[in-house]
Design a protein that fits this description.
This protein is α/β, with parallel strands linked by helices. It is 36% helix and 20% strand. The strands form seven sheets. It has an eight-stranded mixed sheet. Strands 3-6-7-8-9-10 form a six-stranded mixed sheet. A two-stranded antiparallel sheet has the order 1-2. The protein is globular. The two termini are 53 Å apart.
Length: 601
């Protein structure tokens, strides 16, 4: 009989290691529990060799007989968990870096542990205790701690095949951001720091991509290496990145961070495999580095990976589909679409006996031919282009343009690659908000939805009036997406709930119903885009059809997700209804004999 899951009493949580109930203090939730999970899931330490509750104690003074200092997390070299076998101490108090180091050094001095970590949920560092021959105790900051079974000297000597996939890098990026804000020399603005981190991330991904599994990676920092040694190796790696991807990086692009900052970032990321990360690590990095006010002002709220994945799975793009995101940001939808299509290619052509080289050529061909992205933010479009390049080409399909501008005003290069009415799939989360209106008569004249509309009282009829002076971007994106799609093409778009229920916006709903077959409306939780924004949204899934092909009576998939995999603060939660929706949609489609392909290409 399975054990019943213990429900903690109010104000308490279940400790990840011991299973005991502990008070739900900010330090416990944001630091102790987070790093406990990191020790087990990322570093591989077994829970049986970790003690959190009851807390392990160390002496206040060497002469004491009683141990009074409580240790937040103690890691032991065996399962006996004795004073002699304590190996690593983690201090998780909400102190500043200086006070945290003093307390950690005291704990290490008064115990037999040689390794220490200070982590307050936002910053962290690692210490090595060294006992000298004359009885002194010295402390050295090191780039990381060994994984379970590793020696100190193994830090940084990592083979490509030993890199691990982690479920969440946000705490790592937050620690990097706070370290740089306090310590980086010469670069202090968020966007500059973000660009530098992106450069290093692509060094990391390039290194993963072009290092065989049995070889030691170049993106590493060893226990006895100097910061200058690390920088020299990373600069050579970045030179290779710029040579390989000339369309993305220029000769002027440099790693301008100081040596210590470069070594710190490398140390934090070196154990992880970013190519196979479950989350969009670039979006995570960007969210962490760019101030909330800037993102809110530009309407740049990044779509969580589980939402992206669900939308892609519902639209089910194939290798002969043209896919576009006209507000692509850092590339979440186009990257996930590419991964999804590539997975189909591998499964299909492997069964047909194709060689790995033939399959790779097909994947690159599809990336170049079928995937398109547009964003008017130069920095974001550069990130998307670079990410596409690292993942396997397709970099030539990402453009820095205003999607809502007249297409004839786009650059010649963009016009060659993006035609109205030619796309099979549109996936997008457009910027929305009245604070970022679209203006300009010439631009607005392209759109019916840029006009004022008057409701004929007591009816569902709307009369088009004069052109408005401004319009919210999400409304115009609905019409621009319609223009991009071919007949039979399908779209999944994130929209604020007002579009679905506001009486004054009934003309938008009528516009949609007259041009699309409504396929699905998916209500997602308020927490989905938190902590960045509290705007309540839903996902609209439609298929563009000629008026005569739209049925008069047909089933629609309706779904309400109550959980989204995280809480309002962004903390991970196991409950995630969104992850189940695409499967439910497939079952609904089968039961209702629905297929996008019923209307052909």
């Amino acid at each position: 009989m399975a054990e019943e899951q213990i429900q903690p009493k109010e104000g308490y949580i279940i400790d990840f290691v011991s299973g005991q109930q502990v008070k739900a203090s900010p330090e416990e939730i944001e630091a102790t529990q987070v790093f406990s999970r990191i020790l087990v899931e990322d570093y591989g330490y077994p829970k049986i060799q970790i003690q959190t509750r009851p807390q392990f104690h160390v002496k206040v003074r060497p002469s004491d007989t009683k141990k009074e200092y409580p240790v937040d997390i103690a890691v032991f070299s065996d399962t006996e968990k004795t004073d002699d076998s304590i190996y690593l101490i983690v201090e998780c108090k909400k102190k500043n870096r200086k006070d945290g180091r003093t307390q950690l050094e005291n704990y290490l001095t008064l115990s037999k542990a040689n390794l220490g970590v200070w982590f307050n949920g936002e910053e962290r560092f690692y210490l090595l205790k060294q006992n000298t021959d004359d009885g002194r105790v010295l402390f050295k900051e090191i780039p990381n701690i060994p994984r379970f079974g590793e020696r100190l000297e193994d830090i940084g000597a990592i083979k490509r095949g030993d890199l691990i996939v982690t479920h969440n890098l946000k705490s790592t990026f937050k620690a990097i951001r706070n370290y740089l804000a306090a310590n980086a020399i010469g670069a202090t603005r968020d966007e500059v720091l973000a660009q530098q981190l992106i450069n290093l991330i692509f060094c990391k991904i390039y290194d993963e991509k072009y290092t065989s599994k049995d070889n030691i990676v170049r993106f590493r920092v060893g226990i006895n290496e100097t910061s200058g040694d690390v920088r020299t190796r990373i600069e050579k790696l970045f030179s290779d990145v710029k040579t390989k991807y000339k369309e993305v990086f220029t000769k002027e692009d440099v790693i301008s961070l100081d040596d210590k900052s470069v070594a710190y970032i490398v140390g934090e990321l070196q154990n992880y495999c970013l190519i196979d990360a479950e989350r969009d690590v670039l979006a995570d990095a960007f969210e962490t580095f760019i101030d909330h006010a800037l993102k809110g002002g530009q309407g740049q709220f990044f779509t969580p990976r589980n939402v992206v994945k669900m939308m892609v799975e519902i639209l089910d793009p194939d290798d002969d589909d043209m896919v576009i995101d006209p507000a692509c940001g850092s590339g979440g939808f186009i990257i996930e679409s590419l991964r999804y299509i590539w997975n189909k290619i591998v499964n299909r052509y492997r069964e047909m006996g194709w060689s790995d080289m033939e399959i790779l050529e097909e994947k690159i061909d599809v990336a170049n031919k079928c995937i398109r992205g547009i964003d008017k933010d130069y920095f974001l479009s550069k990130i998307a282009k670079a990410y596409m390049a690292i993942m396997g080409d397709g970099k030539g399909g990402v453009f820095c343009e205003d999607s809502l501008e007249r297409p004839e005003n786009w650059s010649a290069k963009t016009q060659q690659k993006i035609d109205m009415g030619k796309f099979d799939v549109v996936l997008t989360n457009p910027p929305f908000g009245s604070k970022i209106p679209v203006t300009g008569e010439d631009k607005l004249k392209q759109y019916e939805l840029a006009h004022k509309w008057k409701n004929k009282k007591g009816t569902n009829d709307w009369e088009k009036m004069k052109l408005a002076e401004k319009e919210a971007p999400q409304i115009l994106f609905i019409e621009r997406c319609y223009q991009l799609l071919k007949y039979g093409g399908r779209m999944a778009i994130v929209l604020p709930d007002g579009v679905f229920g506001n009486n004054q916006l009934g003309y938008i709903r009528k516009f949609i119903m007259q041009r699309f077959r409504l396929v699905a409306v998916i209500d997602i939780p308020l927490e989905t885009f938190m902590p960045n924004t509290g705007t309540k949204t839903s996902i609209l899934v439609v298929q563009k059809l000629k008026a005569e092909d739209i049925p008069t009576d047909y089933p629609v998939f309706m779904c309400v997700a109550e959980t989204c995999g995280h809480d309002r603060r962004g903390n991970i939660k196991e409950e995630d209804d969104i992850a189940q929706i695409s499967s439910l949609f497939r079952n609904w489609a089968k039961d209702n004999n629905f297929s996008f392909k019923n209307y052909g290409k």
